[in-house]
Amino acid sequence: MTLSRVTKALALLIGAFVFFTAAFGPYESMVQRAVFLALVICLGFAQYPLGKDSKWRPFGLAVDLLLVAAGVAACVYVVINSDRIMSELPWASPLDMALTVGLVLAVLELARRTVGIVFPTLVLVGLGYAYFGPYMPGAMRHRGFDAYYITETVFLGDLGIWGMLTGVAATVIAAFVLFGALLLHTGGGQAFIDLAMRLGGRQAGGAAKIATIASGLFGMVSGSSVANVATTGNFTIPMMIRLGYQRPFAAAVEAVASTGGQIAPPIMGAAAFVMAEIVGVPYSDIIRAAFLPAVLFYVSVFVTVHLVSVKRGLALVPEDELPKWSRILAPRHVGPVVAALTGLGIGLMLGRSIATSAFYGISGLLAVFVLTQIGRLSFAEMGKRILSGVEDTGRGLVIVGVLLAGAQVLVSMVNLTGAGVALSSTIVSLGGDSAAIVAVLVAVVCIVMGMGLPTTAAYVLVAAVLAPALTEVGIPVLSAHLFVFYFATISVITPPVCVAVFVASGIAQTNWMPSAVEAVRLGAMTYLVPFLILLYPGLMLEGGAFAILDAVLAGLVLVVAIPALLSDYPVTGSRGVDRVLLLVVIVLAAWQNSWTPIVALLLLLAGWQFGRRRMIA
Q1: Which domain-ending residue is among 164, 186, 209?
Q2: Which of 164, 183, 205 is the last residue in one of the domains?
Q3: Domain that holds residue 141
Q4: Residue 518 within any structural domain of the chain
Q5: Quick count: other Cβ atoms within 10 Å of Cβ 103?
Q6: Of 147, 349, 162, 163, which Cα lies nearest the Cα of 266?
Q7: What's the confidence (pLDDT) of residue 452?
Q8: pLDDT average, residue stretch 86-103
Q9: How far is CA 539 from CA 288, 489, 549, 551, in A?
């Protein structure tokens, strides 16, 4: 059997495992996690072989087989001994240590092949810090832990690699990755693009607005900025360039819009499910809290694109290139999407688990897909599309699985050594117990720590290390986690390690630096939204109607004023006056007071009215 067939078979096996456990419930926690991780390890080394197509592939094959054997042996050992491990919390033996080393090496090597060297290096640093703690300087010193104790923490219990993050990956996230993959393969992807083209194509900056809508819709399903750019960017970026958009601008629009999909309900990517588990609140609370911030983000991008498009005279998409509404609303196009979201919503309203709700959505979309395609596609073709979605699920779960298993090891070491508490205390000390200063320091550190990491891994890291600093100065737990989540997310568009911009620039065939500058301008509101969450609890739909109204008013003023300032859009007709006016409006809108957003809105409207009269005169 060729490697490609092995990969396909393993991907289908993982997809079937996810579907079965979503439908009938997971196995006992350690068994579920160990089986899932064993499958991920097998598929990962088949999908990312060492030395592929090179003359030293035989050596690479030997390494791959050795690591697979070590990783799977450790997982099988845990499945067999799960009851004993959880009831007795046994002392580590030399065999346990050997299995732990083999499993961790397998996971970290897969992480290196899938997302690069940064993440596995961080995990190794965490393990090294736990062992060499007595030799560290100053405040970094701790008593240290021997190899046996580290093995017991990492392997022989549910605080290490078998902890909550791996559990979320093996259940909730796995179910939603399957949900998203099947949705895209049964017509949802084309439905998103068609709807985006129809809604945005004939407006100013139509192609950029198409990219914004399509990438937002894809991002909610895919949960990965980079994967989203690679998927929708291959369609939207060439369209923008063909219509005369500058290449850096086209790349930036796609990168920013793809990033926004991860902060937009109802799915929000894998990190949101992890957040629900860490914070200990229902996932519906995360969705509710993130709704208005996501709206502000996309309104801001739309306004920026519109103002830049009007100023530069960017072309519309030709009418003959846009799909007709009759095609967009045809049951075969929108039926699976509507059925999927309806099934998901019904499951959540009935109080079912998130994974079971995802199963309801999957069942609905598959049923409607088959019914609406009878007579158009053969059953063989329908089966092929469904199996392609299941196969993509398995492939996508490799990255999710190794990242969260590795992140769980890192988090266990952070908790074991008290590194998170120490860093949080340092930040609070530097901030002088001022919530504003602490928030700024945390934001900067979040962006730095998130650079080069996928969003889920970045969030897990900053949530463990930095969120406690915010809660220590009186910020509510959910607000603190949303704050660090946003900054971990936007690290992918923030120079110098802006991986989403790198991918988009590659598609646009342009230098990444101008694209990064454009991306920061387009996503400027995203850098402010987390601070607004702290200033205005109403932005999370808390505090009553007046608090929500106040937050919405402040947000709407900012999503107009900030893009106008950054694009030098004429308001009064005098550039100097415009800049002063917009700066004053921004400060007033961001000021935590019930009246200042109203004053800011009145100033903005007065400036615009003055400008219109001046133009008429």
Answers
A1: 164
A2: 164
A3: 3-164
A4: no
A5: 28
A6: 349
A7: 67
A8: 89
A9: 10, 19, 9, 5
Number of domains in the chain: 2
DSSP, res 317: P
Question: Is residue 530 a contact partner of residue 443, using CB atoms and an 8 Å limit?
Answer: yes
Q: Which two tokens stand for residue 457?
A: 């891994």
* Whole-number Å distance between alpha carbons of 512 and 175: 35
Residue 251 structure tokens: 């790349």
Give dist(CA 575, CA 556) in Å, integer.
Answer: 22
Tell which residue, 401, 391, 342, has the closest CA to residue 33. 401
Q: What is the DSSP string of 481-520?
A: HHHHHHHHHGGGGSSSS-HHHHHHHHHHTS-HHHHHHHHH
Higher pLDDT, 453 or 548: 548
Report yes or no on 275 lying in a domain: no
* Helix intervals (H) in 523-573: 524-535, 545-566
Distance of alpha carbon 100 from the chain centroid = 29
Please list, in sequence order, all residues whose beta carbon lies within 8 angstroms of the beta carbon of residue 462, skipping any fewer than 6 positions away.
Answer: 445, 446, 449, 450, 484, 487, 488
- The model's confidence at residue 78, banded by pLDDT at 50, 70 and 90, is very high
In a domain, 28, yes or no: yes
Q: How many CB atoms lie within 10 A of CB 31?
A: 18
Residue 64 lies in a domain: yes
Contact 290, 180 (CB under 8 A): no
277-305, pLDDT tens digit by residue? 888 888 888 888 888 988 888 888 888 88
Structure tokens at 23: 């439908």
Angle (CA) 255-256-261 rounded to 5° is 100
Q: Is the pLDDT of residue 509 over 80?
A: yes
Q: Return d(Cα 285, Cα 288) in angstroms, integer.
A: 5
Return the number of other C-beta atoms located less than 10 Å from residue 473's C-beta: 20
Q: Tell me how crowded residue 349 is: count the other CB atoms within 10 A of its CB.
A: 10
Stated pTM of the model: 0.80
Report the distance separating Cα 56 and Cα 399, nearest Å.
25
**Over 60: is that where the pLDDT of 98 sits?**
yes
Dihedrals φ, ψ of 374, to 5°?
-60, 130
Partners of residue 374 on adjacent β-strands: 377
Residues β-bridged to residue 377: 374
Give pLDDT, residue 221.
65
